[in-house]
Design brief:
Largest sheet: 2 strands, antiparallel
Helix content: 55-70%
Shape: elongated
Strand order of the largest sheet: 1-2
Order of helices and strands: HEE
Radius of gyration: 19 Å
Number of helices: 1
């Protein structure tokens, strides 16, 4: 039982590290500048 808990904790940590890596990668590759979005709600302008 104790070994299964250890595997569960290690697996959860691996998932967290992978998710954090994906988040950082997406933030780094996001284009710089101004984002203009037109949809049903209207026009929105957001600075990145």
């Amino acid at each position: 039982m104790r070994q299964n808990t250890l595997y569960l904790i290690i697996g959860a940590l691996i998932v967290v590290v992978i998710a954090l890596g994906i988040y950082v990668y997406r933030e780094q590759t996001k284009p710089k500048g101004v984002e203009l979005k037109i949809d049903n709600k209207g026009i929105s302008i957001q600075q990145n």
